[in-house]
Write a structure and sequence with these properties.
alpha+beta; Dipeptide-binding Protein, domain 1; 3 domains; 19 helices; 5-stranded mixed beta sheet
Length: 639
C-alpha cells in the first residue's frame, strides 16, 4: 500500500474532538458481536480461495530459506532505554490500520515502520529476511510461497500468532465491512488462494508469478481473536481500539492524550527482541509524539530540547536558521545522509477531469510555464535536482532518457494557443475569444515551504500568460479535497517503497471512474483522474510481470506515456536527507543509518544515551561547550 509522504504535503488529519471527548469506539458503546460462524461460512463458500490441508500435503522437495546469511542491522553498541521525543502536525483520525481515514501521516510511525509481517526486506541489501515467519520456501513456478510461523511469535497481548491469523487477514481485507475498496480489489485480484496446513504453516499463492515472490506473497496477519467483532459497524466499533501488534511498539493508552499526543511503548518482553535482525533496533523505551501544528513552533521546541530530531531538508533551515548557539556549542549536531531510495514523485498533480485541464495542450503548457529550475537554483540554493520521471531511483528499472519539459514561456504560449488562448488581457494573462482567462488554482496544505514554492511558480508563470491562484488549506480540508477529486491542481508527493514502482494506484482508469460513470471516483490515489489505455496496459503488465526485465520494459513505456499525457508537473528530488539531532541521540558508528531509508528514525537503529543527555543538560547549565559538528555520511552516495 502506498504511503503519502512529502515534507510539503504530508497527509494531514484532525480527529473530531467531539468523538474523542465522548470516547467513541469504546467496547461498551457497541452491542456484542461474534463473527465466528460468519467467517467459517465465508471460508466454506469460497473453497477455491481458502483451502485447508495437512502437513503431509506440503511438497517434500521444497527448499526452505531463513535469511540468516544477511548481515545484522544496527549496532552492538546500541542501548535500550530513554524517550525519543518527536512531533506530529495532525492527530490521526483513527487508530485503525485500515478502512476509512487510515492512510494518515502517523500510520508510518506506528504501523509501516514497526509492525512485522511474515517476512521483510533487509534495509541494506533488499534481500528477504524473517519476520513472523522463521522460514519460507518458494514453490516451482515462482507463484506460491510456503511460510512457517515462528512458534515463539506472539501478539502484544500474549496470544500466539497462528495460521488462523493469516486466514483472517484475507477474510478482513476482502470484506466490504472494511470499507477499503483498494484493499478488497488488491487481495481479491492479486491472490488466488491461501492454504492452512497446521497452526504454524500456510501457503499463499499470487494470481501470477513475480520476482521476489516471497516478499510479494507476504501479508500482515491480523489477530483472529481481536477481530472477532469485525462486522458491518467495523469503522465505528474499531475506531479507537488499539490492535495487538507483532512488532516491538504498542500505543500506550495511559500515556496517550487524544488530540494532544501519542506515546508508543516498547514491549520489553517482545518475542523477537533477541533475534538477529531486531536485537540492535527499536531501542528507546518510549516514542513520544507531541501534536504541534506549526513548523516554526516545532523548531522552537527542538532548539529547547523538547524535541530530539528535526528534519532540515528545507534549505532555509539548513543554511540559515541553524546558525544559532545550540549548534555552534555542539549541543545539537547536523547531518547529511545520502540514501539509496526511490525518489518521491513531488510535483503539481493536475486533475484532468476539470475544465481546461482536460486539454493536453493546457497541461503541456503548464509544464513549460512552471519554472522549477529557478526554484531549485535560487530558492533552494541548488540543493535539489530536477525530477524528470515519475518513478526515479529504481536503478535500471527507471527510464534514463526522458527529460522534464524546461521553463520556456514561448513554448508554453504555443501550447496554450492550440487550446484557444491567443490574446493577453490587461493583466498579462491569456484569454480566449469568449473571455475565458487562463487561470487555475493550486491547492496545498498551509505550510511556509509550500507557500514559497507556489509563490515562485505563480510569479514565473505570468511570463507565459498563465495565472496560478494559490489555495492554502488546513491539513484535513486539503487532504479531503484531493481525495474527493475536487481540486484543480495540488502540490503533492507520494510515498514510495522499493523494490519496484507501482503505477496502478495512481494511473489506472479503474481508480479514476467507476465503470460506466463520468463522476470522479473518490478516495483513490489516481488524483489526476487519468484515463489512458497505455496507462492501463503498462500498469497492469507491471503487476503481472514475472521478471525484472518485463517490469523494466513496461516501466519505461509507462514513463513515455506519462510524459506524453502530462498529468503532472514534476518538480524536484534529492539523494539525501538532512536533519539536526541532540547529541544524546546516537547512531551506529560505521553506517550511521541503513541504506534504504527516507528518515533517520525509519529503521529504528538509533538509541538514546541517557547518561549523555544528563551530561549535555549539565553542560548547558554550566556553559561548557562541545565541538560544532556537521556530519556528512556518503557511504551510499551514487550521484
Amino acid at each position: 500500500m502506498k504511503r503519502l509522504l512529502s515534507h510539503f504535503a504530508k497527509a494531514a488529519f484532525v480527529a473530531a474532538i467531539v468523538a474523542l471527548a465522548t470516547g467513541c469506539g469504546r467496547v461498551e458503546d457497541f452491542p456484542p458481536y461474534d463473527n465466528t460462524a460468519e467467517v467459517q461460512a465465508y471460508y466454506e463458500n469460497h473453497p477455491d480461495f481458502f483451502t485447508f490441508a495437512t502437513p503431509e500435503d506440503i511438497p517434500k522437495d521444497l527448499v526452505w530459506e531463513n535469511g540468516m546469511e544477511q548481515p545484522e542491522i544496527g549496532s552492538d553498541s546500541a542501548k535500550k532505554g530513554g524517550v525519543l521525543n518527536q512531533e506530529i502536525q495532525e492527530f490521526p483520525p483513527t487508530f485503525r490500520p485500515f478502512g476509512p481515514d487510515s492512510n494518515h501521516s502517523f500510520r508510518g510511525k506506528f504501523y509501516d515502520d514497526v509492525e512485522l509481517s511474515l517476512v521483510g526486506l533487509h534495509p541494506d541489501t533488499l534481500e528477504i529476511i524473517p519476520g513472523i515467519a522463521e522460514e519460507w520456501a518458494v514453490a516451482p513456478g515462482n507463484q506460491e510461497v510456503f511460510y512457517r510461523i515462528n512458534p515463539e511469535a506472539r501478539w502484544s497481548d500474549g496470544e500466539p500468532i497462528t495460521a488462523d491469523d493469516v486466514m483472517m487477514a484475507f477474510y478482513v481485507y476482502r470484506s466490504d465491512y472494511a470499507a477499503a475498496p483498494y484493499s478488497k480489489q488488491y487481495f481479491t485480484e492479486e491472490f488466488s488462494h491461501v492454504t492452512k496446513y497446521d497452526d504454524l504453516t500456510v501457503s499463499i499463492r499470487r494470481a501470477t508469478a513475480k520476482p521476489k515472490i516471497a516478499y510479494y506473497a507476504d501479508v500482515l496477519p491480523l489477530p483472529r481473536h481481536f477481530y472477532r467483532e469485525f462486522g458491518p459497524d467495523y469503522p465505528q466499533r474499531y475506531q479507537w481500539r488499539v490492535k495487538p501488534v507483532a512488532g516491538p511498539y504498542l500505543i500506550d493508552e495511559e500515556r496517550t492524550r487524544k488530540g494532544r499526543s501519542i506515546t508508543l511503548r516498547r514491549l520489553k518482553d517482545w518475542w523477537a527482541k533477541d533475534r538477529k535482525f531486531y536485537k540492535n533496533r527499536f531501542n528507546p523505551d518510549f516514542l513520544h509524539f507531541r501534536l504541534v501544528r506549526s513548523s516554526e513552533k516545532i523548531f522552537e521546541l527542538f532548539k529547547n530540547a523538547e524535541i530530539d530530531l528535526y528534519m532540515l531538508n528545507d534549505p532555509l533551515f539548513w543554511h540559515q536558521k541553524t546558525e544559532i548557539e545550540p549548534f555552534y556549542d555542539g549541543y545539537i549536531k547536523k547531518a547529511i545522509f545520502y540514501n539509496d531510495y526511490p525518489r518521491i514523485p513531488r510535483g503539481l498533480y493536475i486533475n484532468t477531469s476539470k475544465p481546461l485541464l482536460d486539454d493536453q495542450n493546457i497541461r503541456i503548457g503548464m509544464q513549460y510555464a512552471t519554472n522549477v529550475q529557478k526554484l531549485i537554483d535560487f530558492d533552494f540554493r541548488g540543493d535539489y535536482t530536477r525530477t524528470d520521471i515519475y518513478a526515479g531511483g529504481y536503478g535500471e528499472i527507471s527510464e534514463p532518457t526522458i527529460r522534464a519539459r524546461p521553463f520556456d514561456p514561448a513554448k508554453a504560449r504555443e501550447a496554450f494557443a492550440k487550446a484557444g488562448f491567443t490574446k493577453r488581457g490587461k493583466d498579462g494573462i491569456l484569454v480566449r475569444d469568449d473571455g475565458t482567462r487562463l487561470s487555475v488554482t493550486i491547492s496545498t496544505q498551509q505550510d511556509p515551504l509550500a507557500n514559497r514554492i507556489l509563490l515562485r511558480f505563480k510569479e514565473e508563470a505570468k511570463k507565459a500568460g498563465l495565472e496560478y491562484e494559490i489555495e492554502a488549506l488546513d491539513g484535513t480540508a486539503f487532504f479531503q479535497k484531493v481525495m474527493d477529486k475536487n481540486h484543480e491542481v495540488c502540490l503533492w508527493g507520494w510515498g514510495v517503497t522499493p523494490p519496484y514502482p507501482d503505477y496502478y494506484q495512481g494511473f489506472h482508469s479503474s481508480n479514476a471512474y467507476d465503470e460506466g460513470s463520468t463522476k470522479p471516483k473518490p478516495n483513490t490515489n489516481n488524483i489526476t483522474e487519468s484515463v489512458d489505455p497505455r496507462f492501463d496496459e503498462h500498469s497492469v503488465a507491471i503487476r503481472k510481470a514475472t521478471t525484472e526485465e518485463e517490469i523494466r520494459e513496461h516501466a519505461w513505456a509507462m514513463e513515455h506515456a506519462i510524459h506524453d499525457v502530462a498529468p503532472w508537473v514534476p518538480t524536484y528530488h534529492r539523494s539525501y536527507y538532512r536533519f539536526g539531532y541532540w547529541r544524546w541521540v546516537r547512531f551506529p558508528e560505521d553506517s550511521f543509518n541503513v541504506r534504504v531509508s527516507l528518515e533517520p528514525d525509519e529503521a529504528h537503529v538509533l538509541w538514546i544515551d541517557t547518561e549523555m543527555k544528563e551530561e549535555t543538560l549539565d553542560a548547558m547549565r554550566s556553559g561548557k561547550t562541545f565541538p560544532e559538528t556537521i556530519e556528512i555520511k556518503d557511504k551510499y552516495r551514487k550521484d
